[in-house]
Amino acid sequence: MKSYTAGIDLHSNNLTLAVVDESGKRINCRKLNCDLSLVLQALDAFKNELRSVAVESTFNWYWLVDGLIQHGYPVVLANPAAIEQYNGIKHADDKNDAFFLAEMLRLGILPTGYIYDAQLRPVRDLLRRRMNLVHQRTALTLSLKSLHHRTVGQTLALNKIKATGNADVAELFEHPANRLIATLQKQHIEALSQSIEIIEKEALKSAKSRSYYDRLKTLPGVGVILGMTIALEVGDVSRFKTPGDFASYCRTVDSRRLSNNKQKGSNNQKCGNKYLAWAFVEGANFAKQHHENCRRWFDRKAAKCGKIVATKALACKLAKAAWHVMSTGEDYDEKRMLPHLSGTKI
Fold first, then answer.
1. Burial (CB count within 10 angstroms: exposed 0-12, middle 13-18, buried 19+), residue 275
2. What pLDDT, in 10s, does the model give residues 39-76?
3. ∠ CA 289-247-138, rounded to 5°
4. How confident is residue 293, by pLDDT bands cut at 50, 70 and 90?
5. For a designed S-S bond to 291, which of 66, 220, 272, 334 qualifies (C-beta 3.0 to 4.6 A apart)?
6. DSSP 91
């Protein structure tokens, strides 16, 4: 019985579907609109003998991957950042790209990405949107603070901005135009705060369903927001075989290329999850401020390497400790993260 593999080169408004057989022979290639019914129709003739379908991981892969999985197709997500075609190729187009994905999948050498659970993914993305709203709120708050400093000549404390009501903020200024913009900015700040609170409550429900959420909050520097971020961004922690693998995914490891103790360049610094990177760096900043042993370790590291490197190194330790907590189900042990306390390392 013959078997087939398929590759889909996905774009914003169309896709190219290519199918090869078990010997690598090109069987079929079609260019289709981004319509799931059209893709299912094109794959229907090969469904019983189709080993797998490779979908290019573009910004809009959710609908296609989820739809194919729901209809019983085995799907993998191709990682375009790790795929490199032969650089001597003379001609390349969507057709060749789709066949290239199918061929690599047939040979078992296709770099793949992680397909996050379709039910939790929207909640994870919702928490990501919260960060955008927080940035907007911060920008408006700083703009209001700057307006006051520019027109009055005095610094307006952030706590006072938060405590001042919408009706009272206009009294801080004399000119009607300044009163108007201050009132509008304060209204937007309050509206954003309400939206952020709603998102946090919704995300917290899903985060609490993760078995390791409560244990994550025992890590130094990790509270409710960072705990939610880590719990919802990780997905299946078993895909990381070692704490080093997880720390690398969190962008907390060095990306330099060295030869004879000389830097010869750097690898892909953006490889990994930027939201986890933010979470663990934030956690490191809180840990060095509020936890004595972390602060002592940070001070010694900073004296040798500088504060930036020391912060990243502490974030790396937190990431490894988080992996241990999530993968083993054990409680956080400070002596495992800070080896100078016991002589052991994680």
1. middle
2. 999 999 999 999 999 999 999 999 999 999 999 999 99
3. 50
4. very high
5. 220
6. -
Q: What is the pLDDT of residues 128-165, one digit of tens each?
A: 999 999 999 999 999 999 999 999 888 888 888 888 88
**Euclidean distance between CA atoms 138 and 121, whole angstroms:** 26
Cα radius of gyration (the chain): 25
Other Cβ atoms within 10 Å of 131 Cβ, number: 15
pLDDT at 182: 93
The count of other CB atoms within 10 Å of the CB of residue 310 is 20
How many of the other CB atoms lie within 10 Å of CB of 281? Answer: 21
Question: With DSSP H G I counted as helix, E B as strand and the rest as coil, what are the percentages for the chain, rounded to 5?
Answer: 60, 15, 30
How far is it, in rounded angstroms, from Cα 200 to Cα 331?
25
pLDDT of residue 256: 59
pTM, rounded to two decimals: 0.88
On whether the CB atoms of residues 211 and 229 are closer than 8 A, the answer is no
SS3 assignment, position 55 = strand
Are 227 and 216 a contacting pair, CB within 8 Å?
yes
Number of residues assigned to the chain? 346
Residue 265 has pLDDT above 60, yes or no: no
**Cα separation of 136 and 157, whole Å?**
18
CATH of 4-113, one of 3.30.420.10, 3.40.50.300, 3.30.360.10, 1.10.150.20: 3.30.420.10
Assign 322 to helix, strand or coil.
helix
Which sequence spans correspond to the domains of the chain? 4-113, 121-208, 213-341
Q: Which region among 45-59, 132-146, 248-262, 315-329 has the lowest average model confidence (pLDDT)?
A: 248-262
Q: Who's near 309: CB < 8 A, 6+ residues apart?
A: 301, 302
State the Cα–Cα distance between residues 66 and 39, nearest whole angstrom: 13
Residue 306 to residue 288: CA distance in whole angstroms? 14
pLDDT higher than 50, residue 222: yes
- Helix 292-305 crosses helix 307-328 at what angle (to 10 degrees)? 140
